[in-house]
User: What shape does this take?
Amino acid sequence: MTEKPVYTEFHPRWYRTRVSTYWWLDRTPYVKFILRELSSIFVAFFVVITLLQIRALGQGPQAYPAFQQRLQAPIMVILNILSLLFVLFHTITWFNLTPKAIVLRVRGRRLPDLLIAAPNYVAWLVVSGVIAWIVTGG
Amino acid sequence: MADKITLEVARYDPERHTEPTFEKYEVPFRKDWVILDALNYIKDRLDGSLSYRWSCRTGICGSCGMMVDGEPKLTCATFLSSYAPGPVRVEALRNFPIVRDLVIEMTDFMVKLKKVKPWIVRENEKPISQGEYLQTPEQLENYKQFSMCINCLLCYAACPVYGLDNLFTGPAAIALAQRYNLDSRDVGARERREILSDHEGIWGCTFVGECTEVCPKHVDPAGAIQQYKVDAAIDWFKSFLLPRGAK
Assistant: This one.
């Protein structure tokens, strides 16, 4: 413990804490943050799946069932469920953060957070509804 | 109710220690005592060599920020009773070099604060005879929240981005820059943008959001940074779309 004092010109030796690689396990909000960052991988996964799906569609009626078959593999089902959960987490956490980034004032008063976040959810529901309507055959 | 509570206080003497160690002190457990009262008791009665910063005791000066049980807190506004039955760990603010015991080195913040020009920048000063610069309550409301910052640095201690890369300008300095950007009397936004739009400025922030959670004055630095990101992005688009840029 005892060591020769090391001085620089103006101050005694400082102690600098090293940040652990696992700093994000220290507190729940940090874990939540890392999970939110990680969710981007699953968002990308969904994008890739959608692009592959479009490509399979383009290859004609024979190719598409083969693509569907591949998606039914247990590993793909698990991956898809996991991705859905992460994408939902991604969407909800980011929607809830929008009031931090967007400040709207009406007659000098700042709009409450709920009014900034809610349109995102409404748009989400509307778009989902339209897609569901198209998928179920209008 | 127990009449004593144990404080585990981080001690570091640069001449004797290579790293901080914890020392235990028993202090009276009083409902009306904050952590700072307990530290003052230790300093007065138990161990005069304990070093820490404090001044106003009323949450204004921003000197007594420390880690209390791993959370950045103003020790003058954190009651002992919240940690009963103890023990309570008190350490120097995270993410800063420690000078001694609970005293941190904050030059890095001071340099960054000055860089963002936290003062009213004017192109022309009007003569005193023309009177003061008037503001409406709405104009005041625009920046008032960000002006509440007391430079206590709890936000820096909560920010993992700053902990991992201390080139990051950091929450309080950006919030204070935004305080002046939003002030109707100020014209310095353009000068500040060069510093703030830097990779180490607003774009360094990954929006962990903990700075806002720990802020004792409800400044919301995370909000200030995200709002500035939106402004900077809009300006960047404008510089493409408009013939003479975003002037």
